[in-house]
């Protein structure tokens, strides 16, 4: 028992460091970029330009139809052999595109949920397409899309553990390295699970607060 307690004490900071310096930045950067991709994709798929619809439909089809781990391996170990892609940019690229593919359906559905009469009424008042989108559609669509997008963010923070497979020293990779020297994989991986559990519980709480505040608007 004393040995296990000693391992916990010695591993706590390295795991926390991996979580703060890699897991959190990777999640935040990938989600922001993924959200931008999602909005562009949703607008393109809702447009009347057929070639544009086809291109973005193909993108969503590919990234939603293949495993995230396979996508990471294709970019880092496959394309990386010729393009020399570093692990972190490769992970950001794939996590962003993967998040964008899934989140685009959320954004697209939220946009389609806005009654067409509101578009027509705003247009009749002389508002431009940009004004209609930014002042009328976007606020309502954001409120509709908030819960599923929040869930996507929470899922992404857990999915970043796959970055360990392409040598990124986030919290899971840090645990693997310590487990390899201490021969206590159950203990180390349980600690990782606790880190993720605490983070997702906090995010779920904040999600609930944010959704409650949106109900007042």
> How does CATH name the architecture?
Orthogonal Bundle
Number of helices: 8
Instruction: Tell me the overall shape.
Output: flat
Reported by name, the CATH topology is MetI-like fold
If you average the pLDDT, what whole number results?
91
| Total domain units | 1
CATH homologous superfamily classification: MetI-like
The tally of strands reads 0
> Low-confidence segments, ≥5 residues, pLDDT <50?
none
Helical residue percent band = over 70%
H/E element string? HHHHHHHH
Strand fraction:
under 5%
Major β-sheet profile: none
Describe the structure concisely for a colleague.
The chain has helices at 2-46, 50-65, 68-83, 87-112, 116-124, 129-159, 171-182, 185-214. With 217 residues, it is mainly alpha-helical. It has a single domain, classed as MetI-like fold (Orthogonal Bundle), CATH 1.10.3720.
Describe the structure.
By secondary structure, this protein is mostly helical. It has one domain (2-214): Orthogonal Bundle (MetI-like fold), CATH 1.10.3720. The protein is built from 8 helices and no strands. It has helices at residues 2-46, 50-65, 68-83, 87-112, 116-124, 129-159, 171-182, 185-214. Helix 1 runs antiparallel to helix 2 (50-65) and helix 6 (129-159) packs antiparallel against helix 8. The longest helix has 45 residues, at 2-46. The chain is flat.
Lay out the secondary structure.
Layout: H1 2-46, H2 50-65, H3 68-83, H4 87-112, H5 116-124, H6 129-159, H7 171-182, H8 185-214
Helix pairs in contact: 1-2, 1-4, 1-7, 1-8, 2-4, 3-4, 4-6, 5-6, 6-8, 7-8
